[in-house]
# Entry
Amino acid sequence: MLDHQYQLPSNHFLKITLNSYQVMKSFIQLEKNSCEAGGILVGRVLDESNNFIIDDVSSPMPTDHRRRKHFYRHPNGHQDFFDKKWRESKNTCFYLGEWHTHPEPSPNPSHIDFQTWRRLLKFPTQNISVLFFIILGTSQMKIWQGTNNNGAIRIELVAASKIDA
# Structure
């Protein structure tokens, strides 16, 4: 199995490493009592191409709120995860967005998802002009790209793919 790569509307690419994909996939809600799970996306922007690579994702933390149809990522734990990756990368990694699961085959963002994404886009971090939001359903993964262009927030679906068996 290989890394997952998606072409973005800008003609750049988003690559998700196999390890990151496997971590997210391990939380897919296949059981009737499985709770939503999620975390942050950590990666790089390649200088020569402006392509994005998601190298790492955090897993749910004990302080997160998890229910069948609800996930709230508490900063505790996820910030420590990012800080560790920042040190390991010698300050070259970036926060690239969020991921979580939904208990439906083809995931669609809820009103709360859109509100959360808009809030995150209002506060740009580390000079990154785009954030990614990944939702894994039970059979499909979808990726949205969010941008904030001088206060004009735009969120668009950029990729959808079947989840590997």
